[in-house]
Amino acid sequence: MIFLFHSSIEKSMNKFKYIINREYSIRVRKRTFWILTFLLPVLYAGLIGFSVYMSMNPGYEKQQVTIIDYSGLFDNYFQDGDDIKFSYAESGAEDQILELMKEQKDFHLLVIPEFDINSPATFKLSSSKNSANFVEGKLKHDLATRIKDERIVKLGLEKEVIMQLDPNISINHEKVGPAGSERDNTDQSMAVSTIAGFLIYMFVFIYGSLVMRGIHEEKQNRIVEIIVSSVKPFELMMGKIIGVALVGLTQFFLWVLLIIGITFIGMKLPDLGVQNAQAGMDSFISGIATLNFPLILSMFLVYFIGGYLLYSSLLGAIAAAVDNQSDMQQFMLPITIPLIIAIVAMQAVIRAPHSPVAVWMSIIPFTSPIIMIARIPFQVPPYQIVISIALLIATFIFTVWIAGKIYRVGILLHGSKITYKDLWKWMFYK
Hints:
With about 425 residues, this protein is an alpha/beta fold. A 4-stranded mixed sheet has the order 2-1-3-4, with helices on one face. Strands 5-6 form a two-stranded antiparallel ribbon. Strand 5 and strand 6 form a beta hairpin. The protein has 2 domains: about 25-55 and about 185-280 and about 290-425, no CATH class; about 65-165, D-Maltodextrin-Binding Protein, domain 2 (3-Layer(aba) Sandwich), CATH 3.40.190.10. It has 15 helices and 6 strands.
């Protein structure tokens, strides 16, 4: 008897492994899998390259600004910069210059009227069609600075004394925790949280949809009727879910390796004239290094797998229950609403990661895969992580049990309009 029992279990496990291997091999061998796998790193490299190119070639020529000053306050005040060249014209030359501007590009005319420095003044700036927008901001700053200096002189004050009144304040921001003081890395944590939360949302949605479409196609093609003659419906559903999960993990690790490789190669390339940008990134990168990446990566995998298993089981059950795309979308919407709420609320959670709303959303299983991974970089208390994972696992087991009952009945049912009442009945079939 014991031998027969073990033999039965072994046969069941062999069938289960076969389904997993089948789902994995079929999807990995597809051309679309490899196209998507290599497409993301290529897009990443292209984005980095484009950013470097734009930093070196902003897309506009040096801006020409002509000044007509009726006030006499700005004679030879404006100084040429890397992006702007100033020139002065005689009073009354506006019409002539404006006529010439029609045939020019990257050209501006600033007319400064006579004005009282104690009263607001309106200045007129005319620009050719292709001119850069930053010119207005530059001129506004220079005009305000000159008027402020003149007001200081009129009041009989010394500019140096006024400048001394403005304190030069710097804040060394540190976080204090059980391990003592450490450098503040809030900006880096926010960046990692946003990326990790979005990736979880994208992966759960994409791979959960793959399971749903695969089951629906097999039901429509009646292939599943042949398959379930040799395996149990529940084994078939779980085999598909785990097989697609392995596909997702494979693709994710390939993305990580390729992106790391591209980043390493980019760092070894000769200087491209972006020293300033590189220098500005040093502080950010050093802050990134202070994050607990082993914890972040391990929790990412936990919540990716947990969230995927939770939602893919429900989506798979829906695909098995309905016959057409419109019905599938109808049942799919209530399931995906928590995911949508989580991704919308993620930015608010990142700004206040320890608020009551953030804590509860990171514990509720249907939103925790996104919200908790967004909170992890902000040093979440371990007990909250344990509770969140435990509830996620328990909810997954429960949803798999429900999905299995729906799948068992719905996978062989054709031609009927399914309602929520029908799904409720199927849960209690023996």
